[in-house]
Amino acid sequence: MLTRIWARAPARFRLGLALRLTGGTVECRRRYPAAERKKFYQNVSISQGEGGIFEINLDRRKLKTPQGKLFTVPNEALAIAVATEWESQGDVLQHFTMHLTNLCNTALDNPTQRTKEHLIRSALKFLDTDTVCYRVEEPPGLAELQKNEWDPAVEWIENRYNVAIGSSTNILGPNIPKETKETFEQHLSSYNSWALMGLEYVIHQLKSIVLSLNLIDRNFGVEKAVLLSRLEEQYQIEFWGNVEWAHDYDLYELRSRTAAGALFVHLCSESSTMKHKLLQD
């Protein structure tokens, strides 16, 4: 009976608690997150498998994905980058810091069974809600800042791809021409599925396909891309002040994720020579 009563209790009362019925009494214990996993290996190495793919070895164990598949990557440069993430771990594994590993896991397991066409459509959706295309009229200081900082990024993409994007202060945003979407669709089709996953990851971080392509095409670097994606927030910080421990952490995390995504795109799509050069840089 006690068990039935507990099951009917609102979720907010049961959240984080564990119920154990012992005899005629109820023992209620708070659930804690699973213990962090301690580092279980000493050495990290890479090896080339069949078909030219590369594997990651943790001591004598082969790294596997969350779904139990053998962790393999298409080239040596990406393998070295992933191995570096594992080699850099301290006494406790912090999986949330291993962005390249997580991207590879997503590409290998593909839990939602997304095709290349799905990835392209997902990226193109950001054109209609692109951060840099939505402008404000008030306050004047922010409006001017958006014009001065975002217009060059938009114009660079328009010139590079021979498209029209524009901007708008209307809540509905600009009307992106059909020809522009077709041009970007053709461009994105030139990427393989792994690179597209990396590009989509970057787009999600920056909330902008315009800024993401500026970054991937090397018009500017990660710090500027992140700064432009947070322009309104940065304006508010300068006006109201900075909560150092919160804003700084968010900034560094965003830079880290964006840099990893951009590197992943290049390592999955560039020539072997360029991959090694990117790792050295």
Q: Could you describe the 3D structure shown?
A:
- The chain is α+β, with helices and mostly antiparallel strands and 281 residues long.
- It is built from 13 helices and six strands.
- The strands form two sheets. Strands 3, 4, 5 and 6 form a four-stranded antiparallel sheet that branches. A two-stranded antiparallel ribbon has the order 1-2.
- It is globular and about 60 Å long.
- The protein starts with a helix and ends with a helix.
Secondary structure: elements and pairs:
Layout lengths: L1 H7 L2 H4 L2 E6 L2 E6 L13 E5 L5 E5 L2 E2 L9 E2 L2 H12 L11 H11 L6 H9 L15 H22 L16 H11 L4 H14 L2 H8 L5 H8 L1 H10 L3 H26 L2 H9 L1
Antiparallel strand pairs: 1-2, 3-4, 4-5, 4-6
Helix pairs in contact: 3-13, 4-8, 5-8, 6-9, 8-9, 8-12, 9-10, 12-13
In short:
With 281 residues, the chain is of the alpha+beta class. The protein has 13 helices and 6 strands.
